[in-house]
Amino acid sequence: MSDLVQWSGNLLYASFIMYLIATFFFGGAIRPKKNGQKQEENRWGKIGITVAVIGFIAQLGYFFTRWAASGHAPVSNLFEFITFFSMMLVGAFIIIYFMYRLPVLGVFALPVALVIIAYASMFPRDISPLIPALQSQWLHIHVTTVAAGEGILAISFIAGLIYLVKTIDQSKRSKQTIWLELIMYSLVAVVGFVAVTTTFTLSGYEAKFEYVNKDGKAAEETFHIPAIVGPNEGKLVTEDKFEPIVDMPAFINAKKLNTTLWSLAAGALLYGLIRLLTRKRMGALVQPLVKNVNTDLMDEVSYRAILIGFPVFTLGGLIFAMIWAQIAWTRFWGWDPKEVWALITWLFYAAFLHLRLSKGWHGEKSAWLAVVGFVIIMFNLIAVNLVIAGLHSYA
Amino acid sequence: MNKKKKRLIVRSIILAVLALAVGYTFYSNLTKEERHNLRKGDEAPDFVLTDLAGETRQLSDYKGKGVFLNFWGSWCDPCKKEMPHMEKLAKEYKSQGVEVLAVNVGDSELQTKKFAKQYGLTFPIAIDSTKEVQDAYNITPLPATFMISPDGKIEEIVIGGLVKEEQVRTLFDKVKP
Amino acid sequence: MAKVKCECGHVNPHGTILCESCGRALTEEAQKEKLHDMRYEGSARRSQTYNKTIIDKIWNFFSSVKVGIWLIVLTLIASSIGTIFPQKLFIPNNVSPETYYEETYGTAGKIYYTLGFHDLYNSIWFIGLIAAIGVSLVICSLDRVIPLYRALKNQRVARHGSFMKKQRLFALKEEKLQPEEIEKVKEKLKSKRYHIREEDGSLLAEKGRFSRWGPYVNHIGLIIFLIGAMLRSSEGMYTDEMLWIREGETLEIPGTQGEFYLKNEKFTIENYDKEKDPEVFKEALERTGGVVKNYQTDAVLYRDENRDLPGAKPKLVKVKEEKIRVNEPLKFDKFALYQDSYSKDEMKAMEFALANKETQKEAGRVKVDLFNPKDTYDLGNGYKVEIVGYYPDYDGIGSDGEPKTKSPLPNNPAFLFKMFSPEHPKGEISFTAIRQTLEPVGETDYKMEFRGIETRNISALTVRKDLTLWILGIGGAIFMIGVIQGAYWNHRRLWIRQIDGEVYVAAHTNKNWHGLKREINSVLEGTAIPVPEDQQG
């Protein structure tokens, strides 16, 4: 039994490495050619996609071995769900790649997938048994379909991002460059989160607090990262640890906020370092990668990904969700925050599809919308679970 | 011209249907809370209970008489306060065709009997042990009093305690046949 | 409201931009366009053509896609506001919302409450927004689907040269086509499932036209769904009741008009066991402590043959016996019973011993059913216990000197006992509560010693009837069909025409230009017909 778990972990690790390698091959595939001709798939691209597919198969292996070990599809906690989302993102990339044969998509999609896997692995990784509400076939059906839909929609973000990197004028500072930098910084901040969490976990930092919780009761919380912000009326119990600078009101989860602050700070440090070393905006730094990109085609890929992903997301995130909610929670819709954010995601893409009918909403505006859509998805995927507790907060 | 008129009619009909649907949605959403509450003028839901003496009491048997239907519990203070008024007037109005029927909600037989004895209550008291009657009348806070006219209609609803004797008397007068 | 007659002879409705039949531009703007806007085939969107009466104005307002998008965006923003703080539904139900929001979230919470955001999704304006979306769906669709249908039905094979030139994919070549050339292309097109129409040397190949109806099909689905949601608040369509039922109790199921009764045989909560359950869970169980494995009510469903008045004794006939678990509701008739909540270990009975204080000798035991205590318990040999007063939820002594009870539930039972013994045939009074004994009328020789307690669980079941589900199901299914139809297929057309010794080739698709280009390339490559090129960008 534990062998299977061991295998599962190794396979995930292998897929991570494969995606990393594939990224470099795709990077090689988009090197500008001497004759300046339009990019066609070359040998580098072929190797890149092959490695990516092997990585994907390895990740499928992780998924099914873990399923076999636990007896349920590994989509029941944040680590499992986010990992599965990354797998769906890569899967969607592979499909889109075979439609359009654009190595540049890999250069952006795979690093995003890598960051997401790294992020996921910061959450508790042990196999947890299912609480009664999750004991249903609909767990597999609903969650996998949602993740698949979101993975495909994420490709529209990747294409939109490439579009923006290519078209935004980096010769001067503008609203666009600032927003683009914000996207880049967000990605770096996730890396910051991974770095901070890993560092302090390895060092074994532990600081216990006694505090007063939301219901006015005494509670305890152990911080694994030095507390910049402490819990409501918190008292540091462990000796010789960092005292928080401020205490938070009871309704804010100080531990999570603290981690967020650390991540943002680490991200800022990393980002600052990059800017300092290269003396360039990150947008400008990656711009050479997209030199040969056909923007019209990228716009179409972004739109197409939404067209493909929207029905899948609707099916998983709303229809299957409603069916299961009717069975498990007695009502198909109950305005639980996660439900609401699924609706918001759906409404957003519905608005996007209608805007595509209007003139002037192709190209750059459309690319920005694809970015916003991804932000909403990530918000629902992560923030709603971590920040707004509801029925879905079992992760 | 003709065609334009036709179009206007078609549009008007469609808009009217939509307006109706939206209006209905508002109406049914805004009224769903109180829809299940009984109101003045409603038919009093019939029920049948056995009183402490073992006699069957069915509301519809009281047709032709006014009924002072009171829901109470021994733990509720306002219920205790109104009992003496009820007892006094029950005797007085019996000859005038108004009967008191008290329904206990939630107490055991022991408590109910002790309570009746303590307050010297002579009117029939029945225990709604399954809470079916309470549900039929949709009662949450106690006490609650329903004045039922001789033809079985709800004449008056009082949620909460009756403090003054005069107040109770007015209620009795309302349902005199 | 003059109709517009095109040079080709076709009579178009007022407001048409591109002739339905030959595609010639009918407005000046369209003539000036570099590429034609093909959104609704250049048909006359009805709403844009008149603007007279108030009815027309309302119609036109809702007919605008822009308005529709605004409604979507407003709903989206409103929905997100509702998740900032928990809704009224999710706050503890023993607190008043008025104070809860301010106490928990400070000034922001107070503002949130004052603006009514604590119950946002039931507010009039939110329902109004959804209703407006519904209206917009109906009118937008009607206003577009009919002209589009007309335009696609009336389209002629031979399109005007100007129309073809202003298509995104277009090519022109001086060439005289041989019939066998055309045949070859036709074969290829057929193998790609194109429908081909020909008219004096001109050719129109078309496929996937049905995908154009996708948006309208999915809008119909949404409208049906909204109708279902609307009916949900109607009388009799929807039941939402709660049944709190103790182990051993048989109660009428609320909402069933006295037809069905339920008995709770047993309620169980089971936790995962580190030893017995699969070893892979061990780590997680050690990290998180207990994880619940199962909530279950062993229930028996009865039908009341009597169906008599409330309060009447039911004549119960067993229908079925089932275990109600989370995700496995008990279904009957149009109802379903769901395991929703529970309360553990409510006191059911208490056991006391009548004992002599001095000798510690027990004279006998009394087991008091807290829901139906007896008047007296005769222990024989002259020993007897009488219950003078029973206070199930004891809450101190009132101002009148009498013990008070907060509620009829046995949360904190207390008794006023009268203890009879051969030594005290007139009885001694003892007040016995949990961890407390008073002797209000003088010290006693006997006492009621607490011996034990019997408890039972209460299961909370949600009683649900929802007669709108099938409507929602149909709406949802139609929506999915429409969305898939519109998103996974596309409407592709290829026109080939010979004018004055020149070959005109134009192609159009409503989406996925990349796919269209690849397909046309593969069809036309190696033929005398030029491959159309992208004129955009």
Low-confidence stretches of chain C: none
- As a whole number of angstroms, the C-alpha radius of gyration of chain A is 22 Å
What's the mean pLDDT score of chain C?
A: 88
Q: Report the sheet-strand fraction of chain C.
A: 25-35%
Straight-line N-to-C gap of chain C? 38 Å
Spatial gap, N to C terminus of chain A: 24 Å
| Largest interface pair | A-C, 63 and 67 residues
Helix share of residues of chain C?
Answer: 25-40%
Number of domains of chain A: 2
Reconstruct the topology from this structure.
The complex is a heterotrimer of chains A (395), B (177) and C (537).
Chain A: H1 2-29, H2 43-70, H3 78-100, H4 103-120, H5 137-167, H6 175-203, E1 207-212, E2 218-223, E3 229-230, E4 235-236, E5 246-247, H7 254-278, H8 282-286, H9 295-328, H10 337-355, H11 364-386
Parallel strand pairs in A: 3-5
Antiparallel strand pairs in A: 1-2, 1-4
Chain B: H1 2-31, E1 48-50, E2 56-58, E3 66-72, H2 77-94, E4 98-104, H3 109-119, E5 125-127, H4 132-136, E6 144-148, E7 154-159, H5 165-174
Parallel strand pairs in B: 3-4, 4-5
Antiparallel strand pairs in B: 1-2, 3-6, 6-7
Helix pairs in contact in B: 2-5
Chain C: E1 4-5, E2 11-12, H1 28-32, H2 54-63, H3 65-81, H4 97-114, H5 124-154, H6 161-165, E3 169-174, H7 179-191, E4 195-199, E5 202-207, H8 214-231, E6 238-246, E7 250-252, E8 260-271, H9 282-288, E9 292-304, E10 316-325, E11 330-332, E12 335-356, E13 362-369, E14 376-380, E15 383-391, E16 394-397, E17 403-405, E18 414-420, E19 428-433, E20 436-438, E21 446-466, H10 469-488, E22 492-499, E23 502-509, H11 513-524, E24 533-534
